[in-house]
Amino acid sequence: MNPNPLFCMFASVMLAATSALAQSPRWILEEVFCHEVGAQLQYVTRVQGHGGLTKVVLDNLPDDVDVSDVQVDLPTGMKLVAIDQSEGVAGPSSDLLSMIDEEKALELSMALEAALLQSLEQEQRFLEANRGIAGSNDVLLVDDLDEMRHYVAQRHRILAMEAVELRESLKSMEDQLASLREAMAPWRREARRVRRLLTLVLSGTGQGELTLRASTQQAGWVSSYDLSWEEGTGKLQVERYAKVIQSTGIDWDDVILNLRTGQPLGEMVGRQPVARRPLLQSSEAEGGMGYCASYEWVSSGLRDDRARAEVLQGQGAFASNWQMTGSKPVSVNGNANPSRVWLDRVVLDASPRWEVRSGPSDAAAKSCHTTGWMELAMLSGEGRVFRGNTMVGGVPVNMPAWGDSLVVELGRDQEVRVKRSMLQDESGTRRWSGKTVVTQMRRIEIFNDKSYGVLVDVSEAIPEGPAMQVEVDATAGGAWNREVGQVEWLKQAIAAGETWTADVRIRLVLPPGVRVSNF
């Protein structure tokens, strides 16, 4: 009997459609476009269409992915019919299942050891209860009694030693079990995590690479620098890094990392962007105050909403439309553990400067000034300062207004020493007015122990207050800056091996009852 041709054709079509719908391609997270807030993830796979409907599922997405922001590139000959969004529990991974088996084996071993220990303890109690066996029986010989007592004592010792070994074994197993459960905790959380699933329904005939891009807000990065001043060369060595963090719960393994400022925006934007504040800092002085919002956002583990808002208002790295691609594939942990990704190494021309301010330190603060940051489009972030192979501290690295010099703090320089001394310190109270008159003469000495000359900015703080009369007279060209309350000597040149000296005469007239502390 010959089969019906129409039935055969229908069966063939159904078989092809069923095969297409059953495709489970392997997705690869190939590239990440990481912004200051958020990231765009690019997945690729290979698909094949046979003329019917082809269903492709991507089930390892962050839980905040929005289907409206998804972008899909299809092979020639295939069309996108629909994208369905759903959720599902991740479930235990193979690593977690292996740990669960290990946990069960440890628990079984502990139960067996505990049962054996209980048996030993029961035997010990039995021997203790029968320690006086045959003690009142005149029929037994003395030798028999001695032999029994010897057996009981020897058995007690054996049981005691075995009990000690069992207790030590149990304690070791308990420690192993505690460590194992601690290691299992993040895997269990990952198994309970709700994952976003995207189902792509395709039509047409064709085969090739399918690319899908989806955005998440659970990522961020900030610039990080290793800074080293080359003594005597006028060069600042800068190694540039990106401190990247993401909390999607999904590791980025061997991905191409593209760094961007701002946040990822889809091709279709249905609303106007939020108005931004000016991107430039107002002065060089403000550029050195505190860390930028991008640093605070990353350092908080992506939990500081205030810092996030400031980054989105343009107050993060103080730059827009900036981009850079890493030199090689990198991996970033998905549990909010920052990764420091190396970008490049550059050498900048810089001018050193030293600063001496009021305070207990006996060494000048050293910094260097450079405008080379503009050519490299450096961003605000954090810096680690090195002297040779020794890290001496961390500092904010904030880019100033365009055209100004970037100031990099390099720490204290013990070869530019400071000595302060009090030449005169007198005070007295006027009999009729009750006012207190304080007269001081201070001396500041700066010793340059270097083999070359240095430029030093010197300042000496002078107290001020309501109804207080202040008279200041300084040598060596010092100027009294009443607005900031200090005497200033700017760009004082001190030759190699020379000493710079300045005296400051201060006369204060204080209202009745007013005292000045630490003066």
Q: Count of DSSP E strands?
A: 22
Strand content: 35-45%
SS class: alpha+beta
Fraction of residues in helix: 25-40%
Q: What's the N-to-C terminus distance?
A: 116 Å
Which sequence of strands runs across the widest sheet?
19-22-17-16-13-12-18-21-20
Biggest beta sheet attributes = 9 strands, mixed
Nearest-angstrom radius of gyration? 38 Å
Calculate the mean pLDDT score and round it. 83
Helix-strand string: HEEEEHHEEEEHHHEEEEEHEEEEEEEEE
| Discrete helix count | 7
Tell me the overall shape.
Answer: flat
Describe the structure.
- Helix 2 runs antiparallel to helix 3 and helix 5 (293-299) packs antiparallel against helix 6.
- The protein is an alpha+beta fold and 519 residues long.
- Helices cover 25% and strands 43% of the residues.
- 23% of the residues are buried.
- A hairpin with a 4-residue loop joins strand 20 and strand 21.
- It has helices at residues 5-21, 94-129, 142-192, 284-287, 293-299, 305-315, 373-376, and strands spanning 28-34, 39-61, 71-73, 78-89, 194-216, 219-230, 235-246, 252-260, 323-325, 330-332, 339-349, 351-356, 363-370, 381-387, 390-397, 406-429, 436-448, 454-461, 469-474, 479-481, 486-494, 499-510.
